[in-house]
């Protein structure tokens, strides 16, 4: 784990945005994409989003996400192909250009969450048919489901909110062809099963996760990110049973920590974003870094530096 002094010093050097003058730029909540010559340069910034809003930046967050995704793209390429070509910088991926499908596929192994699209938020309000999944009565928050379920959402435009939707509604609306959607479902469940079993060896629970898919050369591919603390919830496995039996919250290693802090302040996505103190940012960064180290088994290596300047140097031989 990096010392607190390095995390504190990096607060003034985090990467909020890029504005390179090449290709066609598309800005997501966290990633800046540059499309040129049949390829896409994906720069993972240090921005953190929650409730479909960009909140602030966290030290080294972009590096954590980018390197975890690269790890999983390598591990899962036997399950489904992905778009990755190379990783020329800790915050950068070069990928093949793809045609994205306009839905996000969320696989849930447990019922939890505080966002309006989360399973627990809806269950607590009496909904028992969630995105086409029939849920039993008497579930408790953070309880493991009998088997993982798929709860898709539409992909909202920047600044808008995602919409929960069933697979059947995706097909009915023509968002994704039925044959392709069934392949997506199969791939998502296989990825989740593989990821959950692998992280369990490292004392982690893969609680739920988001996948995005696209088409590349006529084939279905995994895109964007995979099993990161942004796209997934991770809990500490060793303490889960005891905490659950006491109706206590599990130990979390993901951005749910920040979501919960905002929720406690009464913020669920609408209105001004509360100012997030440095100590909350540093604690969140620690959780991201711990997740990286527990998932990959590698020590996280980083130093205080201007991330944007380093990326500029890394991209000189690529564009």
What do these coordinates show?
The chain has nine helices and 16 strands. The protein is an alpha+beta fold and 319 residues long. The protein folds into two domains: 155 residues, Phosphorylase Kinase, domain 1 (2-Layer Sandwich), CATH 3.30.200.20; 146 residues, D-amino Acid Aminotransferase, Chain A, domain 1, CATH 3.30.470.20. A hairpin with a 3-residue loop joins strand 1 and strand 2. The protein is globular and about 55 Å long.
Radius of gyration: 19 Å
Total number of helical segments?
9
End-to-end separation: 34 Å
The CATH topology assignment of the largest domain is Phosphorylase Kinase, domain 1
Q: What class do helices, strands and sheet pairing give?
A: alpha+beta
Instruction: Give the helix level as a range of percent.
Output: 25-40%
Q: Which runs of at least 5 residues are low in confidence (pLDDT < 50)?
A: none
User: Oligomeric form of this entry?
Assistant: single chain
The shape, in one word, is globular
The CATH C-level name of the largest domain is: Alpha Beta
Name of the CATH superfamily of the largest domain: Phosphorylase Kinase, domain 1
**Number of extended strands:** 16
Q: Secondary-structure element order, as H and E?
A: HEEEEEHEEEEHEEEEHHEEEHHHH
Strand content: 25-35%
- Major beta-sheet overview: 7 strands, antiparallel
Give the total of domains. 2
Summed over residues and divided by their number, the pLDDT gives a mean of 95
């Amino acid at each position: 784990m990096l010392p607190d002094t390095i995390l504190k010093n990096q607060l003034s050097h985090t990467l909020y945005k890029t504005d390179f003058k090449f290709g066609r730029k598309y800005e997501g909540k966290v990633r800046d994409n540059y499309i040129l010559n049949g390829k896409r340069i994906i720069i993972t910034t240090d921005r953190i989003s929650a409730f479909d809003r960009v909140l602030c930046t966290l030290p080294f967050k972009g590096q954590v996400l980018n390197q975890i995704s690269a790890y999983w793209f390598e591990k899962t390429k036997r399950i489904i192909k992905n778009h990755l070509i190379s990783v020329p910088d800790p915050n950068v991926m070069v990928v093949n250009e793809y045609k994205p499908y306009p839905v996000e596929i969320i696989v849930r192994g447990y019922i939890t969450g505080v966002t309006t699209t989360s399973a627990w938020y809806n269950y607590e309000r009496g909904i028992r048919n969630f995105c086409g999944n029939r849920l039993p009565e008497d579930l408790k928050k953070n309880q493991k489901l009998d088997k993982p379920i798929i709860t898709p959402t539409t992909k909202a435009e920047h600044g808008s909110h995602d919409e929960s939707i069933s697979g059947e509604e995706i097909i009915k609306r023509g968002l994704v062809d039925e044959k392709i959607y069934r392949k997506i479902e199969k791939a998502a469940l296989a990825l989740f099963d593989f990821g959950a079993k692998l992280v369990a060896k490292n004392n982690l629970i893969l609680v739920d996760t988001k996948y995005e898919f696209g088409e590349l050369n006529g084939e279905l591919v995994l895109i964007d990110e995979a099993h990161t603390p942004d796209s997934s919830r991770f809990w500490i496995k060793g303490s889960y049973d005891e905490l659950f039996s006491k109706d206590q919250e599990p130990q979390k290693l993901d951005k749910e920590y920040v979501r919960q802090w905002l929720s406690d302040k009464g913020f669920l996505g609408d209105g001004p974003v509360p100012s997030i103190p440095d100590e909350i940012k540093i604690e969140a960064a620690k959780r991201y870094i711990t997740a990286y180290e527990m998932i990959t088994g590698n020590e996280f290596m980083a130093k205080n530096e201007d991330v944007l300047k380093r990326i500029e140097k890394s991209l000189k031989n690529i564009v």
